[in-house]
């Protein structure tokens, strides 16, 4: 039985497409924004070459998408499929330009990633971690049907202290594609 369709519409002027090596400059700029970096596991001062290498790593196990306005990368997200007995599952990561947050870009990018996972890649479980103080992201994930599976204490060093994250997951039989 096919999964319900996701709303793949994007805000006006935004195109969601596969990330390409030419996006390395824009992705490095994105990764170096204070707000973007605060919500991810990225280190400060990401360079273009390291970003380009990350883009080309992973091969068929990785799906990397960008949201662009013209030639500017305004959001990035990806799925990394696990192997072996966990090949039915993937880890999701997403981040939005500081200036584009709360404008529907993250929703559109998340919908595209989940549509790809469940309707094209035969993934049955999508997992993520999100900092406990990232309330807008947590609300977005919950809107799509993600549920909290645990709290990981002292998970990552950020801004001079250890921060907790929520482990969340979405199973194919429990997703709510209406978001």
From TrEMBL:
Keyword terms of this UniProt record: Acyltransferase, Transferase
Coiled-coil ranges per UniProt: none
Keyword Transferase on entry: yes
Pfam families given in the database record: Acetyltransf_1
Species for this entry: Xaviernesmea rhizosphaerae
Lineage: Bacteria, Pseudomonadati, Pseudomonadota, Alphaproteobacteria, Hyphomicrobiales
N-acetyltransferase domain span: 14-173
Keyword check for Hydrolase: no
Protein name in UniProt: N-acetyltransferase domain-containing protein
Entry-linked PROSITE patterns: GNAT
